[in-house]
């Protein structure tokens, strides 16, 4: 064997270490010619490889010159060492020659179980192992008094039919395990059971309470009609739509009919009052159409811009320009807008391929005055300044952005700005504007078109408008 692998208390001096295994020498021998010392086993293994030289100085050696070194062995055996079970918690220290005697009785040493169960157990825990853990120990069940070995007892525990246990449904009952199945399936008030009507699971002791509320529990019709039993959850529907004895209102109630009768008389009433019902429905439809028209008008007013400024986005510009060039979409119109909440109603129109003198070369832009709901409260003719803008869509932080701005003051004599006739809303009226507002070339060469969209802005100077 090589040198001692135990943990020594003090650092081992080099003279005590084998040059081959670098451990404290076991059974040290000395080569008398060079006085080098080795573990007997280490040197024998070295020489067994066919090399007959000293491992340190490589001088040739003779077996006859190798002798045991009892003095060195005595020194090594007197070194103070820890127990080999030191990592497991043993605090013993002593001379190396006392180590084996200590380890034979060390409580931290492991040994095979004497019952041959296959376990290795520390000496200090052997008694507990033999009494409580060993699979080969003999054990008597406290409930049925039968003998088992440890392995069989582990299987028997928790299944002994003679053990007294509480009901697993927590009903409070206690019984021998052999009676548990009979109890949990037939006697236990907490046993699981299904409702006969809704098939849901309940504890047996609350089933009766559930039946008082079960949606599928059959009950009789309170009107005593010919339907004998109805599931509780369907009773309301039965009374409302099916029960022939239930008092019901005429289906033309919303049209004004106030007749009530049992459901089985309803068909006769409908036949007798057919003409009256048709007349009532006609009046109801007429009234509802007027209400819908008024609501649509109110919703339309709420969605119209009333800030005096319109920002009009013309999307798909190139597609619409091509349509205008093909005489398919010559004029496009903006959403109407108001100068203020109760003000003038205006609308822009644009000819993307031009109009009049601007055709095929310019974008033409016009504004018209539309009939509004509050025209009778406003001053006429319309005479407030209007500004048209084509917005530059370049970098918003750049100082080179250049919007196209045109401002004009309506001439009171122009017919375009007189009060429009609400009874003669001529949608073809062109309005006032500019046939050559901006050339196609200028739009293309600058940042007015971006993402195939053009932004046109119209602003009315409302500072002089008298709000009614």
Question: Could you explain how this protein is built, in words?
Answer:
- This protein is of the alpha+beta class.
- Among the domains are: 14-103, Herpes Virus-1 (2-Layer Sandwich); 304-460, Apoptosis, Tumor Necrosis Factor Receptor Associated Protein 2, Chain A (Sandwich), CATH 2.60.210.
- It is 24% helix and 22% strand.
- It has helices spanning 40-47, 70-77, 99-105, 126-133, 150-156, 180-187, 207-211, 235-242, 266-272, 274-303, 317-325, 440-445, and strands at residues 28-31, 37-39, 66-68, 80-82, 93-95, 110-112, 120-122, 138-140, 147-149, 164-166, 174-176, 192-194, 201-203, 218-219, 230-231, 247-249, 260-262, 309-314, 332-333, 337-338, 345-351, 362-370, 386-390, 404-408, 432-439, 454-460.
- Strands 19, 20, 21, 22 and 25 form a five-stranded antiparallel beta sheet that branches. A four-stranded antiparallel beta sheet has the order 18-26-23-24, with no helix packed on it. Strands 2-1-3 form a three-stranded antiparallel beta sheet.
- The chain is flat.
- The model has no long low-confidence stretch (mean pLDDT 86).
- It is found in: Cytoplasm.
- It comes from Phallusia mammillata.
- GO terms for molecular function: tumor necrosis factor receptor binding; ubiquitin protein ligase binding; zinc ion binding.
- A zinc finger (TRAF-type) spans 101-154, 156-208, 209-266.
- Pfam families: TRAF-mep_MATH, zf-C3HC4, zf-TRAF.
């Amino acid at each position: 064997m090589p040198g001692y692998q135990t943990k020594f208390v003090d650092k081992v001096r080099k003279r005590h270490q084998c040059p081959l295994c670098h451990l404290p020498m076991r059974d040290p021998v000395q080569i008398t010619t060079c006085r080098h010392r080795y573990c007997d086993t280490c040197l024998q293994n070295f020489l067994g490889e066919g090399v007959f030289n000293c491992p340190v100085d490589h001088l040739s050696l003779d077996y006859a010159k190798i002798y045991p070194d009892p003095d060195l062995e005595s020194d090594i055996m007197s070194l103070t060492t820890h127990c080999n079970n030191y990592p497991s918690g043993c605090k013993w220290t002593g001379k190396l020659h006392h180590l084996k005697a200590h380890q034979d009785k060390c409580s931290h040493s492991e040994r095979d179980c004497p019952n041959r169960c296959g376990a290795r157990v520390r000496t200090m825990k052997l008694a507990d192992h033999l009494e409580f853990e060993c699979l080969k120990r003999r054990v008597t069940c406290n409930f049925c008094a039968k003998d088992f070995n440890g392995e069989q007892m582990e299987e028997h525990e928790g299944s002994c039919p003679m053990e007294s246990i509480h009901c697993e449904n927590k009903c409070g009952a206690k019984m021998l395990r052999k009676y548990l199945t009979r109890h949990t399936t037939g006697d236990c008030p907490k046993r699981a059971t299904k409702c006969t009507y809704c098939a849901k699971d309940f504890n047996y002791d609350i089933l009766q309470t559930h039946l008082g509320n079960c949606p599928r529990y059959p009950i009789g019709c309170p009107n005593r009609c010919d339907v004998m039993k109805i599931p509780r959850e369907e009773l309301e529907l039965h009374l409302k739509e099916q029960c022939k004895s239930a008092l019901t209102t005429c289906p033309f109630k919303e049209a004004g009919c106030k007749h009530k009768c049992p459901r089985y008389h309803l068909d006769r009433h409908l036949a007798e009052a057919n003409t009256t019902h048709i007349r009532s429905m006609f009046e109801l439809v007429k009234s509802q159409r007027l209400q819908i028209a008024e609501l649509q008008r109110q919703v339309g007013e709420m969605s119209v811009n009333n800030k005096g400024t319109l920002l009009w986005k013309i999307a798909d510009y190139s597609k619409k320009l091509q349509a205008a060039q093909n005489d398919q979409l010559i004029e496009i119109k903006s959403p109407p807008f108001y100068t203020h909440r109760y003000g003038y109603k205006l609308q822009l129109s644009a000819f993307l391929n031009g109009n009049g003198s601007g055709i095929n070369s310019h974008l033409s832009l016009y504004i018209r005055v539309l009939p509004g709901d509050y025209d009778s409260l406003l001053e006429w003719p319309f005479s407030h300044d209007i500004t048209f803008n084509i917005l530059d869509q370049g970098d918003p932080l750049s100082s080179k952005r250049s919007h196209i701005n045109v401002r004009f003051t309506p001439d009171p004599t122009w017919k375009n700005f007189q009060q429009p006739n609400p009874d003669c809303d001529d949608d073809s009226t062109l309005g006032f504007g500019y046939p050559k507002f901006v050339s196609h070339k200028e739009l293309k060469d600058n940042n007015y078109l971006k993402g195939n969209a053009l932004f046109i802005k119209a602003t009315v100077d409302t500072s002089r408008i008298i709000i009614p």
